[in-house]
Specification:
145 residues; single chain; alpha+beta; 23% helix; 9 strands
C-alpha cells in the first residue's frame, strides 16, 4: 500500500493574517478558511507552486476544546503534522499501529476538507492521526468519493 505526501499542517493564531503573509513570498491561497465542526478547526490550503502538488494547510482552533488549542497555547503554533494520502485508511491505520505507531485519532470524517475542495460524493473524506515514537504526528487522508 502506498502513501503520497498530501500536505503539511501548520497551526496558527490567525489563518487570514498568516495566509496574507505567506502570499507575499509567493504561496497561492487555494481555499478559503473552512470550519470543520467535527475536527473543531478552521483550515485553508495554500500552494507553493503547482496546485496539484503538496499543500500547506493552515489550522486555527475554533474554540478551546479543539485538539490543536493546547498545541497553540503551549508552543505558540508552528509545524503540526505531515499528511499522507492513502487508498485505504482503515488498512493503513491498522498496519502502522502494528508497526508501533500510536493511534491518536482513529479514522473519522473530515467534512471541512470536502467543503474546501468542493468534493461531492457518497463517501466523505476520512482522516486519522498517528504518533511516531519520536513524537512526529502523521495524518492519513482518504479522499471521499
Amino acid at each position: 500500500m502506498k502513501a503520497k505526501l498530501n500536505h503539511i499542517g501548520v497551526v496558527v493564531h490567525d489563518i487570514l493574517e498568516t495566509s496574507q503573509l505567506l502570499r507575499i513570498i509567493g504561496l497561492k491561497q487555494l481555499t478559503k478558511p473552512e470550519p470543520d465542526p467535527i475536527q473543531k478547526v478552521s483550515a485553508c490550503f495554500l500552494a507553493g507552486g503547482e496546485e496539484q502538488g503538496v499543500h500547506i494547510e493552515l489550522l486555527e482552533p475554533t474554540d478551546d476544546t479543539s485538539p490543536i488549542a493546547k498545541f497553540l497555547t503551549n508552543r505558540g503554533g508552528g509545524l503540526h503534522h505531515l499528511c499522507f494520502e492513502v487508498d485505504d485508511i482503515e488498512e493503513m491505520t491498522e498496519r502502522l499501529e502494528q508497526e508501533g505507531f500510536q493511534v491518536v485519532s482513529p479514522p473519522t470524517e473530515c467534512v471541512g476538507y470536502d467543503k474546501s475542495f468542493n468534493l461531492k460524493g457518497n463517501e466523505a473524506t476520512r482522516i486519522s492521526f498517528l504518533l511516531l515514537p519520536n513524537k512526529l504526528l502523521i495524518e492519513l487522508l482518504q479522499k471521499g468519493a
